[in-house]
Specification:
single chain, 291 residues, Ribonucleotide Reductase, subunit A, 11 helices, binds fe (ii) ion
């Protein structure tokens, strides 16, 4: 089938809107912006440090397949996906600069991710296998961000209790945009005949890399401020991440497993999430559109 004959490759049921979050909004947040707690604050910093280079990689990986897409709706969604991810990159860089100003080795941590992901994308320019693997990893990481986004948007009383309002708004803004574009990379993968088996295999690797990156960042940050050896750090930390009912990585586990079900698509999950109601709390932090 020629590209021109292909229609309805998109399965996204919502419109994808690019909102500009003010990068300066978080610049007055305290060092321990999450309930004055080093573990919780550095857990959010560790995630934020992964985002800029990760999202640049997602953009490159999806754009590498744009010329194989025929559906005008999916083409438009690819554009919005890239614009949203570019905004996330800018705003998380500003948040990471704040951590750097507090003396944390942010640039060093980012440079490790940057080196590996740029190398991966470079290989994709000459190797179809590497190009396909990069897109598969992007689909998997987008599933990760979508299920963590659901956690942020539906359990914020627990996961964000005591969180500085500007950082809370930043994570909610990112979460709702991740929700809007959660099906785009998946649809590009399917539309270009990506293998479902390979995608599940990639998910195991993506999970390993994501958790490893998060753990390395968190360990370095806690080591740097001297709180790594304190029992109080780990007591709240274990509850925050692995708490049986609301742990940051516990509740999303069921959603992670769903990825392996036959016929899975990101939009088969959490159709009940009301994106519109979640936009109200972030309004004060958005840069007004120039008319
Ligand atoms: Fe993002
Ligand atoms: Fe994303």
């Amino acid at each position: 089938m020629g590209v021109a004959e292909v229609i309805n490759q998109s399965n996204t049921p919502v419109s994808i809107e690019v909102r500009k979050f003010d990068p300066q909004a978080t610049q007055n947040a305290p060092e321990y912006f999450h309930g004055n707690d080093p573990f919780k604050s550095h857990f959010m910093n560790a995630l934020s440090i992964l985002f800029p280079e990760g999202e640049r990689f997602f953009i490159r990986s999806v754009l590498a397949y744009r010329d194989q897409i025929g559906d005008p709706k999916l083409l438009s969604e690819i554009k919005e996906f890239c614009a949203q991810e570019a905004q996330h990159t800018l705003v998380h860089e500003a948040m990471n600069d704040l951590a750097a100003r507090h003396g944390y080795p942010v640039e060093k941590l980012e440079s490790w991710v940057r080196r590996d992901l740029r190398r991966f994308s470079k290989r994709g320019k000459t190797s179809p296998w590497a190009r396909r693997a990069a897109l598969a990893m992007t689909v998997c990481m987008e599933h990760f961000t979508a299920i963590l986004a659901y956690q942020v948007l539906t359990d914020s009383e627990v996961t964000a209790k005591g969180l500085d309002p500007s950082v809370k708004a930043l994570f909610e803004w990112h979460a709702l945009e991740e929700t809007e574009h959660k099906g785009v990379a998946f649809d590009v993968y399917q539309a270009t005949n990506g293998s479902a088996f390979f995608l599940r295999f990639a998910m195991l690797w993506a999970t390993l890399f994501f958790l490893l990156g998060l753990f390395v960042n968190l360990t370095v940050l806690l080591f740097k401020d001297g709180s790594i050896g304190k029992w109080s750090t780990w007591k709240t930390g274990i509850q925050f991440v692995f708490g049986p009912r609301h742990g940051f990585l516990v509740r999303p586990f069921k959603d992670w497993l769903a990825f392996f079900k036959p016929g899975f698509h990101p939009w088969k999950q959490h159709k009940d999430l009301d994106i519109e109601s979640n936009t109200q709390s972030i309004g004060a932090y958005l840069v007004p559109a120039v008319s």
